[in-house]
């Protein structure tokens, strides 16, 4: 029970990785604050998570006031925040740069960059005061590599890596660790949307091609990503900060 009575705040908690992570922390005794855009999917997700305490919070992470609000509500309810998974993200539309639109770029940056920044801004205030805490930002292998058709997403996830490093440096003296995970394709709804965006009615073919580009020839499971998040936020990772970890079936080695 590594997380007995620890308070874990997760954004994007109704999505594939968010649910798997919430389940993993709950199994080890954590109390959860789960954030996503809409109440109904959040309730459906919560039904799949057996935790001693679950606080459900609807908010749009791209709205600073809403982020401030869910951080305050978590603090009011539990009195502290021990672990923060800064995880909500969107893939956006599929366009090469020559056809990219400002609207798509702004939408993706609104969630993936401003959302991550707002989450850090308010949660780190709480952790700084506590003089303890661990953050895991969800980046992507798209934050380390390029991906044709996904310039907005790729640029946004590179920005997450920059925020991750800077936050770690600013928080080290307060005993707060900040790390990121950088997964390749994970078998969640996000990959279904990316396959669809990339290839329309050939989505199944796109899926095979994406999986074949991974040396281990498959997508990750959400549980595999959750396991890495859990490790990075645990006391076993007590000297790890400012790092990002590829979890990509060998793709980064190609
Ligand atoms: P998902 O689509 O299943 O879940 C994402 C969740 O984020 C959804 O529940 C969605 O409602 C929520 N969300 C989106 N915009 C939001 C907003 N503005 N405010 C609050 N919540 C919002 O996808 P996932 O695979 O679970 O993705 C989780 C994270 O992992 C994302 O940051 C994503 O970029 C990253 N990631 C995913 C993959 C992949 O292949 N699935 C690979 C690398 C990184």
UniProtKB/TrEMBL annotation:
The keyword Ion transport does not apply. Its EC number is 1.1.1.47. GO terms for biological process: bile acid metabolic process. InterPro entries: NAD(P)-bd_dom_sf, Sc_DH/Rdtase_CS, SDR_fam. Keywords: Oxidoreductase. The keyword Ion transport does not apply. GO terms for molecular function: glucose 1-dehydrogenase [NAD(P)+] activity. It holds the Pfam family adh_short_C2. Belongs to the short-chain dehydrogenases/reductases (SDR) family. This is Glucose 1-dehydrogenase. It comes from Salinibacillus xinjiangensis.
């Amino acid at each position: 029970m590594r997380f007995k009575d620890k308070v874990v705040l997760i954004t994007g908690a109704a999505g594939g990785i968010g649910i798997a992570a919430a389940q993993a922390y709950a199994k080890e005794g954590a109390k959860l604050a789960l954030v996503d855009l809409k109440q109904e999917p959040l309730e459906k997700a919560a039904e799949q998570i057996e935790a001693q305490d679950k606080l459900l919070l609807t908010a749009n992470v791209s709205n600073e006031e809403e982020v401030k609000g869910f951080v305050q509500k978590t603090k009011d309810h539990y009195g502290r925040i021990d672990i923060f998974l800064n995880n909500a993200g969107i893939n956006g539309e599929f366009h090469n740069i020559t056809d990219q639109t400002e609207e798509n770029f702004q939408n993706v940056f609104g969630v993936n960059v401003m959302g991550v920044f707002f989450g850090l801004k308010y949660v780190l205030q709480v952790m700084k005061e506590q003089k303890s805490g661990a953050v895991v930002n969800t980046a992507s292998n798209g934050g380390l590599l390029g991906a044709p058709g996904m310039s907005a997403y790729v640029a946004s996830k590179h920005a997450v890596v920059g925020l991750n490093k800077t936050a770690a440096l600013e928080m080290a003296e307060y005993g707060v660790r900040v790390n990121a995970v950088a997964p390749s394709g994970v078998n969640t709804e996000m990959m279904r949307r990316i396959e669809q965006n990339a290839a329309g009615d050939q989505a199944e073919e796109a899926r095979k091609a994406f999986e074949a580009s991974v040396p281990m020839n498959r997508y990750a499971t959400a549980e595999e990503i959750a396991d890495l998040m859990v490790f990075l936020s645990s006391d076993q990772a007590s000297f790890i900060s400012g790092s990002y970890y590829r979890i990509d079936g060998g793709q980064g080695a190609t």
